[in-house]
Amino acid sequence: MVNNIIILKLGGSVITAKSKPQTLNVRAIKNIAKIISEFDKPIIVVHGAGSFGHYFAKRFRISNKQTTSTKAIIQIRESMIKLNSSIIEIFNKYKINTLSFSPISMYNKKNILLHWEDYLKKMLNMDMVPITYGDMILGSKGFYIISGDVIVKDLTRMLNPRNVVFASDIDGIYSDINDKSTLIKKVQLNKRYSINFNTQKFDVTGGIQTKLKQALDIAQLGTNVQITNGLRPRMLMKALNGEHIGTLITGD
Ligand SMILES: Nc1ncnc2c1ncn2[C@@H]1O[C@H](COP(=O)(O)OP(=O)(O)OP(=O)(O)O)[C@@H](O)[C@H]1O
Ligand SMILES: [Mg+2]
Fold first, then answer.
1. How far away, in angstroms, is 205 Cα from ligand 2 center?
2. What is the pLDDT of residues 131-146, one digit of tens each?
């Protein structure tokens, strides 16, 4: 039995330089590796695509539709494998027992296969850190992009974690992204908020709007979610420990 599972989504905006094609943010990955290596609860990591996957998805114009273009599928998947390998390499230097896999092995028709509950819990019991990522997976008419944010929601439904943290390059959700004094500390279900979103250059999976939607679905499941800044290690550490530091999305 594993209790107190934490699910961490590492945004592509943290682990890559999102505006520079295929560029890692090595310093950020190292800071996060240090935090995870010292963290004492079972943790699952899902990472985003940043300037790796998003860049190619945009180039091949396949943001939200299924595709059979083998060239696009292969390039996007290859770029995600490269990003994932670089992260694992750094994590392993920090003695994290990473066990990485593409979501292609977990999903069947938009659902995570049931035996993965047992797989993941066994890995966590062995002190491993399962790590997966936004990727292209099989749909009924070809391959489609599954966002890391959606994977986190699906894993939450399966594993009922203690809390979920989305780490991005902002302290939380702002009413107005251009005014840093408008950070929303708490988002409650069934309340109305006025939020201004800007569009990202390389984001094909809906950016912060997708994140907020998944966070609301997770809160609906009864799990608290925080959106916080993965570029600020102390903030991230506090959020992982359940302290209210960014935008808290909650059912109560
Ligand atoms: N109202 C808002 N509040 C907070 N962030 C916002 C808002 N509107 C737009 N954003 C943008 O959303 C971005 C974060 O979402 P984005 O999807 O780009 O990051 P990510 O999920 O970390 O990356 P990836 O999708 O590659 O995993 C921020 O960089 C910010 O500029
Ligand atoms: Mg995103």
1. 6
2. 999 999 999 999 999 9
State CA 74 to chain mean position distance. 22
pLDDT digits (tens, 9 = 90+) for 62-71: 877 899 999 9
Any ligand 1 atom below 6 A from CB of 168: yes
- In the chain, what are the domain boundaries? 6-250
Report the C-alpha gap between 72 and 69 in whole angstroms: 5
Q: Which ligand neighbours the alpha carbon of 178 most closely?
A: 1
Task: Report the CATH fold assignment for 6-250.
Answer: Carbamate kinase (3.40.1160)
Compute the distance from residue 12 Cα to the ligand 2 centre, in Å: 7
174 lines ligand 1 (CB under 6 A): yes
Whether 197 lines ligand 1, by a CB cut-off of 6 Å, is: yes
